[in-house]
From TrEMBL, chain A:
Protein's name in the database: Peptide/nickel transport system substrate-binding protein
Organism: Rhizobium wenxiniae
InterPro entries named in the record: Peptide/Ni-bd, SBP_5, SBP_5_dom, TAT_signal
PROSITE patterns (UniProt xref): TAT
Keyword Signal found: yes
UniProt-annotated location(s): Periplasm
Signal peptide stretch: 1-27
One BP annotation, GO: peptide transport
TrEMBL record, chain B:
Zinc is among the record's keywords: no
A Gene Ontology biological process term: transmembrane transport
GO cellular component, one term: plasma membrane
Family classification: Belongs to the binding-protein-dependent transport system permease family.
Topology of the protein relative to the lipid bilayer: Multi-pass membrane protein
Subcellular compartments: Cell membrane
Protein name as annotated: Peptide/nickel transport system permease protein
Top-level division of the source organism's lineage: Bacteria
Domain ABC transmembrane type-1: residue ranges: 71-260
One Pfam family recorded for the sequence: BPD_transp_1
Main location: membrane
UniProt keyword annotations, A-Z: Cell membrane, Membrane, Transmembrane, Transmembrane helix, Transport
InterPro entries cross-referenced by the UniProt entry: BP-dependent_transpt_permease, MetI-like, MetI-like_sf
Species lineage: Bacteria, Pseudomonadati, Pseudomonadota, Alphaproteobacteria, Hyphomicrobiales
């Protein structure tokens, strides 16, 4: 037997280890005293890609918008339009010519300069014949795009478009560098304060600070930021409590929010969103093609019960596709209020005295599953049988419902602000066609008078409340749970986003 | 049979199983309230209060009624699945025992393959083809029961085929099929009955697992597995929503396993001799 080392060596090593340990122990407080420069933001669903100009999922924008990509204009935390890559603009008196003065000295993350040719490329790509931009129709009013010089962009419109500047602030309208456009889906290159560094599929997206960011007025405090994707609310809660995730701006389970109250490490911030939970119906398929059937179903729904049962009472009932935060909001929950007897009578009038049965394609998210089960019970009261078929979101839902419109009824939260115009789109999964409604929305765009526009939005809301192309249920709250020392996250969500520009740690 | 009171395991198993079957059958004609009836005002009420014996769930539905109907859904699915599995498996077992040769080799390797795929996985694959639901659950559970019974009956039948009286029967020119029906099956029926009881417990557990994953009966039909799945995020506020269906599953499986063990002790000729 050979001894490996002597006792004296052991003790010497022991002393050294002790000394080292003590050194570390003394050094540690200094290491912590420097403010943290990394943040991990939790999200429930992972986006399918990272290019907001080719995909409709709001999660794409929630990762990239204002962090990696920027637009000509932007939308601030109060929902107002602000200049961004366009310094200023002039609108001709007839509302048909927009002249943008573009910011100079802006570079994409790959070093290419931003100028009017890039802006023209982006807009042409978005409005082109083979464009797959999710908001393609926002660009259809553009007739010609001129670039007199590198810093000037002139848009000639076919008709006045009152919402153009607001739309230009959206994720779908961010500026895209021509040579990277094809790869932005997996390797996004923008002009924003953060550079994309890595995407571990199924787990997280890593961003790092853009050292050459053009806007010197803003000092970005975070060196790195990660978006972690955790689907299960229990796991979200555990990750927050353990400190693995610093913030969940949209926490997944309202029933767990109460458990964070009184937590001295985590702050609970309940804000507004634009998330309208609506049960869309296939308006071209029997029996939903009959307005009376849709109205009867709406009257069978007790919205307060849905909010209480599905979202622990945290939510606001709505009567149309519009939220109380939106301009010109009208409370229309009284147009077809909960009334079982009237619902039954109307259903009989439509020729279904014994009810009917249909299939609900419900995504797997808790709000959709729970709301579906409540609707199932409510419809049973008027003799209508609803079978629930869980449809995986996003992939299968997008393919079956959004793209193919192969469904009877579905339920989903529409996240985009001021998207009442989706009912004027053709094709769109509701298959709702009402020229009168389309005319009202056209008037909104033709008008430049804000109060006139608000009034027209009121008319549009009323038409939907009467026609019931979808069952309008409730607006979700924004359940923000984050570390109390983490500052700068938006409390409200005028547009789905996780803007990290001002996020920083405070001791 | 008077020995049943000297066999506590068998007695407890029998009582628990009968009680369970009784509750399941009762749910067909009577429950405290309609299990799909929602009453949001009365949501998440604890047991033994205004919410009834076992309280209410997140939609204000009566948990006691849901558990009762869940017992029927769980037991009927499991019974059907095991019945299919036992019938097909035993048939395969005795036929293979009759023919032997290359057929035995192929069937046994086939059983190994089915054994290698967990029932949850095969249910997910089936669900992709057939859509999730009760039928899928029954087939998925039945499929993995088949090799269990095939192996059991093959081993048992092979022993019987080696007996002198079977050789004698062959000697007087009886057909193999007739021998299987008259001599083989009656002599291995005890083993099959014991195995059915034990597999029932396993089937209930698997059915709960499938429902937990959303591959069982769709809502509004209450199932123990989905009740457990739905209760997850409410555990802090309403622990009974997880504890009660969990206990129901545990008691059902325990009862059936004890019954199976007890039956084996009573019916097995070796233990009887000792």
């Amino acid at each position: 037997m050979q001894t490996i080392f002597s006792w004296s060596q052991v003790s010497r090593r022991g002393v050294m280890a002790l000394a080292l340990g003590a050194g570390v122990a003394f050094a540690a407080p200094y290491a912590q005293a420097a403010p943290k420069t990394a943040a991990t933001i939790g999200m429930t669903v992972e986006p399918g890609g990272l290019d907001p100009t080719i995909g409709a999922q709001v999660m794409i924008g929630q990762v990239t918008w204002q962090n990696v990509f920027e637009g000509l204009t932007t939308i601030d935390k109060a929902g107002k339009v602000q200049p961004q890559l366009a310094e200023s603009w002039d609108v001709s008196p007839d509302g048909k010519t927009y002249t943008f003065k573009l910011r100079q000295g802006v570079k994409f993350h790959n070093g290419v300069a931003f100028d009017s040719s890039v802006a023209k490329f982006t807009l042409d790509r978005a409005r082109g014949a083979d464009s797959v931009n999710p908001q393609k129709r926002y660009f259809t009013s553009i007739d010609t795009i001129e670039t007199p010089d590198a810093a000037t962009l002139v848009l000639k419109l076919k008709q006045p478009t009152g919402s153009l500047l607001y739309w230009f602030g959206w994720p779908a309208a961010v500026m895209v560098e021509p040579s990277t456009a094809a790869d932005n889906k997996t390797n996004p290159v923008g002009t924003g304060p953060f550079v994309f560094s890595n995407w571990a599929k199924g787990t997280k997206v890593d961003l790092k600070k853009n050292a050459d960011y053009w806007n010197k007025d803003i000092s970005v405090k975070l060196e790195t930021a990660s978006f972690r994707f955790i689907n299960d609310p229990q796991a979200q809660s555990a990750a927050l409590t353990a400190g693995d995730v610093d913030a969940f701006p949209e926490f997944g389970a309202p029933e767990l929010v109460a458990s964070f109250e009184g937590n001295d490490k985590l702050a609970t911030v309940i804000g507004n969103t634009e998330l309208k939970v609506v049960a869309g119906m296939n308006n071209s398929r029997k029996p939903f093609s009959d307005k009376k059937v849709r109205q009867a179903l709406m009257m069978a729904v007790d919205r307060a019960m849905v909010v209480e049962g599905a979202w622990s009472g945290l939510g606001t009932p709505i009567g149309s596709h519009y939220t109380p935060n939106d301009r010109g909001y009208k409370d229309l929950t009284g147009v077809y209020p909960y009334d079982v007897e009237k619902a039954k009578a109307l259903l009989a009038e439509a020729g279904y005295p014994n009810g009917f049965s249909f299939t609900m394609k419900a995504p797997q998210m808790a709000y959709a599953q729970r709301s579906s089960q409540i609707l199932q019970a409510l419809f049973a009261e008027i003799g209508v049988t609803m079978n629930i078929e869980t449809t995986e979101f996003p992939a299968k839902w997008v393919a079956d419902v959004l793209k193919a419109a192969d469904y009877d009824m579905t339920i989903v939260a529409h996240a985009e602000p001021m998207d009442i115009d989706i009912y004027a789109r053709d094709p769109y999964y509701f298959n709702y066609k009402n020229p009168e409604f389309n005319a009202v929305l056209a008037k909104v765009e033709a008008s430049t008078d804000a109060s006139e526009q608000d009034k027209l939005y009121g008319e549009a809301q009323t038409i939907l409340a009467n026609d019931v192309p979808a069952l309008f249920l409730f607006v979700m709250p924004k359940l923000g749970i984050w570390d109390k020392k983490l500052k700068g996250l938006w409390e409200n969500e005028p547009i789905p986003s996780n803007v990290l520009t001002e996020v920083h740690w405070e001791e | 049979m008077g020995g049943i009171f000297r066999r506590p395991v068998l007695l407890i198993g029998l009582v628990v199983t009968l009680a369970l079957v009784g509750v399941a059958l009762l749910s067909l004609v009577w429950t405290p309230s309609l299990p799909s009836k929602m009453n949001i005002v009365q949501r998440l009420k604890p047991p033994l209060g205004p919410g009834g014996l076992f309280g209410t769930d997140q939609f204000g539905r009566d948990v006691a009624s849901m558990l009762m109907v869940g017992a029927w859904n769980s037991l009927s699915t499991s019974f059907l699945a095991v019945a299919i599995g036992a019938t097909v498996g035993s048939a395969v077992g005795v036929i293979v025992a009759m023919r032997r040769g290359w057929l035995e080799l192929i069937v046994m390797r086939g059983c190994d393959i089915i054994f290698a795929v967990p029932p949850i996985l095969s249910a997910m694959m089936l669900g992709a083809f057939l859509g999730s639901g009760r039928f899928t659950a029954i087939i998925a559970i039945a499929v993995f029961m088949v090799p269990v019974f095939a192996r059991l009956t093959l081993a048992g039948a092979k022993q019987i085929w080696a007996r002198d009286y079977v050789t004698a029967a062959v000697g007087i020119g009886r057909s193999k099929a007739k021998i299987t029906l008259v001599h083989i099956l009656p002599n291995i029926s005890n083993q099959i009955i014991v195995q059915v009881t034990i597999q029932l417990g396993l089937a209930i557990l698997t059915e709960a697992g499938l429902s937990f994953l959303g591959l069982g009966m769709p809502p509004p039909a209450p199932t123990w597995g989905r009740m457990l799945a739905d209760s997850q995020t409410f555990f802090g506020q309403a622990p009974w929503l997880a504890i009660l269906p969990g206990m129901a599953i545990a008691v059902a499986v325990l009862g059936l396993n004890m019954l199976g063990d007890g039956l084996r002790d009573m019916l097995d000729p070796k233990t009887k001799a000792g």
